[in-house]
Fold:
Amino acid sequence: MKVVMATNNANKLREAQEILAPLGIEVISQREAGADVEPEENGSTFSENAMIKAKAVFDIVHCPVFADDSGLCVQALDGRPGVYSARYAPKGEECAKLLAEMQDIPEEQRTASFECCIAYIDENGCGTFGASCVGRIGTEARGTNGFGYDPVFYYGEKSLAEMTAEEKNAISHRGHALRMLYEVYQKRYGEIC
Structure:
């Protein structure tokens, strides 16, 4: 089976391909499918933004499409950066800004979660589903793997950026949500593998 991912983010596309390929689903980028669009993500929730992206691409390609909208929600910051995670700081400066903003927050108040919502559309309809990964914000950035806030988001004793792709995908918000996508595919199209 083949599905289009409505994204221009190479890191998200790579993670989706790594997670879904062993399940028998080929993920191609929206550009590969002929949809060179960048819809405005003006929703107030992850679900709304994911659906905006999925619908924009589906309206062009008319085949199964999914989109991910995700972000980091920090309890001590009243859920920020949330849906604005990608726009919280200039690219590459997200971790430094977050660490500076949290420098006086004690360990027991550094709980955070990565949230992911997947919107899926095909000729039979559409739907959304979400997943999360709960951890904490560390006091320093560690690791060179991953992207975005991975170096400061700790799950157990490791930051996500210290984990292998397999370790991260097994516990991440996106990994959980993409496995839900696989279940949707199974229900709609029968056994895939």
Notes: The mean pLDDT is 92. The first strand starts at residue 2 and ends at 5. The chain has five helices and seven strands.
